[in-house]
Specification:
Strand order of the largest sheet: 1-5-6-12-11-10-7-9-8
Helix content: 40-55%
Shape: elongated
Number of strands: 16
CATH topology of the largest domain: BirA Bifunctional Protein, domain 2
Largest sheet: 9 strands, mixed
Strand content: 15-25%
Structural class: alpha+beta
CATH class of the largest domain: Alpha Beta
Number of domains: 2
C-alpha cells in the first residue's frame, strides 16, 4: 500500500472529528454532570433512535431539517430512512405517541446528530446535542424554566459570563397574518428583518403594495433592540399596530414577564431584547432566545416556544425547549478549564501496578480496589511503569499495596 493511499485511510470527512483520551474523559465527565443536572430539575431522559423512517423523521417541524438529513434505503423494508439531524422532532413524537397519559412532560436527551451540511459558522457536522423540552404547558413560566435550565448547563461548563438574546416569533408572525403574503414574500421579509435592512424593507414593502403603517411597524421592529427598557419603548411605538392585534399585545406582555422573572431568579443576568430577532419563525411560535459569550459572534445555545408540535403525530401540544451542542460548549469553555471546574485530576502517577499472576486472591484484591475507584494496571510487557505510584506485593501470605 502506497504512502498516499495510507494517508487517505486516516482522513475524516469534512466536519467530522474525534477525541483523544484526555479530551474524551473531560467530555464524558461533563456529559454525566449535565445528565445528573437535568435529573435534579425533574426531567426524564429519553433515547430516540439514531435512524428511522424518513416520513416520521421529517414530519411536522422535522421538515425544516430535510436538507440536513442523510438519507439511506433500509435493506430490510426497502423504505427510505434518515439519520437524525435534530432530536427535537423525535422527542415530540415520543411525547405524542408514547406518553399520551401525561399532562405535562419534562424530557431531556443527550445524543449525536449528523448534518449533511455545515451551518457556515461551526464546521462540525456531528454535534452532540443536549436539550430539554416541556410539553403540555402554555405560558411564559415554562419558557423561564427552560432558559434557567439552559443557563445552569452553561454555568456547569464554566461559562458564567452569558448574554441572553430574547425575542418573540409571534410579533412578526402576527404582522404577516394581518396581510395577505405568499410564503416566498414572508421569507424575503423575514430575511430582511434579520439583517435589519431598513431601506430594503421599505423598498420591498412598497413593491408589495403594503400599507404604510405595516412598513412602519417592520421598520420599528428593526430599531427595537437593546436592554429590557426596549420593551417599554415597544409598548409605546407599536401601540398603533397592537391595537386590534391581540397576538402582538400578548407577545409583548409575555416578554415583559419572562424578562422580569429572569431578573429576579438569575441575579446579574444580561438580557438583550431584539424584536427583529425572530429566528425560525416557521418553527417557533412564541418567545425565542439564544445565549452568547462576550465577543462571541455566534450563539452557544438556543431555544424557544413551538406550540402545536406533535400535531402530525395526532397530539398537538404546547411546548418549549432549548438545545446545546456539547462539543461546541467544550471548545468554547476549554477542556482544561472544564476539567479544573469538575475536579478532574490528570496526575499520571496514580495507578497501582499489579504483577501478572494466576493467584485467585490477587485477582479478588484487584477487583476490590477497582470497585473502590482505584486504577490497577497489570504489568504487561512494555507497560510504562511510570504511570504507577504504588504496587501490589505479597507479604506474609497477603497481597498489600505499597508505595513505589
Amino acid at each position: 500500500m502506497g504512502s498516499v493511499q495510507r494517508q487517505t485511510l486516516w482522513r475524516l470527512p469534512d466536519g467530522m472529528d474525534e477525541m483523544l483520551p484526555r479530551q474524551a474523559r473531560v467530555f464524558e465527565e461533563l456529559r454525566r454532570s449535565i445528565y445528573n443536572l437535568h435529573i435534579t430539575w425533574g426531567y426524564q431522559p429519553v433515547e430516540p433512535p439514531f435512524i428511522e423512517f424518513l416520513e416520521s423523521l421529517l414530519s411536522g417541524t422535522g421538515r425544516d431539517f430535510e436538507q440536513q438529513t442523510f438519507k439511506v434505503t433500509d435493506p430490510l423494508s426497502g423504505r427510505m430512512m434518515g439519520v437524525r439531524a435534530d432530536m427535537t422532532p423525535q422527542v415530540a413524537r415520543i411525547d405524542a405517541h408514547r406518553m399520551a397519559d401525561s399532562e405535562i412532560a419534562k424530557l431531556f436527551y443527550i445524543g449525536t446528530v449528523v448534518r449533511a451540511r455545515n451551518n457556515g459558522v461551526d464546521k462540525n457536522r456531528a454535534p452532540l446535542q443536549v436539550g430539554a423540552e416541556i410539553f403540555g404547558h402554555q405560558g411564559p413560566q415554562s419558557d423561564v424554566e427552560v432558559i434557567r435550565l439552559m443557563m445552569s448547563v452553561l454555568q456547569r461548563a464554566g461559562i458564567d459570563d452569558i448574554y441572553l438574546d430574547l425575542g418573540h416569533a409571534g410579533i412578526f408572525r402576527s404582522v404577516c397574518e394581518s396581510i395577505d403574503l405568499s410564503a416566498y414574500d414572508r421569507a424575503e421579509l423575514f430575511s430582511l428583518l434579520q439583517r435589519k435592512a431598513v431601506p430594503d424593507i421599505e423598498a420591498y414593502g412598497s413593491g408589495l403594495g403594503l400599507q404604510q403603517e405595516v412598513q412602519q411597524c417592520l421598520v420599528r421592529l428593526c430599531r427595537l433592540n437593546g436592554d429590557t427598557s426596549v420593551l417599554n419603548r415597544a409598548a409605546v411605538e407599536l401601540a398603533p399596530f397592537a391595537e386590534g392585534n391581540p397576538f402582538m399585545t400578548q407577545a409583548l406582555a409575555e416578554l415583559q414577564q419572562i424578562s422580569s422573572d429572569l431578573r429576579q431568579t438569575v441575579p446579574g443576568i444580561n438580557i438583550h431584547v431584539d424584536l427583529a430577532e425572530v429566528r425560525g419563525y416557521q418553527y417557533h411560535t412564541g418567545a425565542v432566545f439564544a445565549a452568547y459569550t462576550p465577543g462571541g459572534g455566534s450563539e452557544i445555545a438556543r431555544g424557544g416556544r413551538y406550540d402545536g408540535i406533535g400535531e402530525s403525530f395526532g397530539r398537538s401540544r404546547p411546548a418549549t425547549g432549548y438545545s446545546i451542542d456539547l462539543k461546541l460548549l467544550l471548545r468554547q469553555a476549554g477542556y482544561e478549564q472544564i476539567a479544573e471546574r469538575l475536579g478532574l485530576q490528570y496526575d499520571q502517577r496514580r495507578a497501582i501496578l499489579c504483577p501478572e499472576n494466576s493467584c485467585t486472591e490477587l485477582h479478588k484484591k484487584v477487583e476490590q480496589l477497582r470497585a473502590s475507584g482505584e486504577v490497577v494496571l497489570y504489568d504487561l510487557a512494555g507497560l510504562n511503569q511510570s504511570l504507577c505510584d504504588r504496587a501490589m506485593v505479597k507479604k506474609d501470605g497477603a497481597w498489600l499495596v505499597e508505595s513505589l
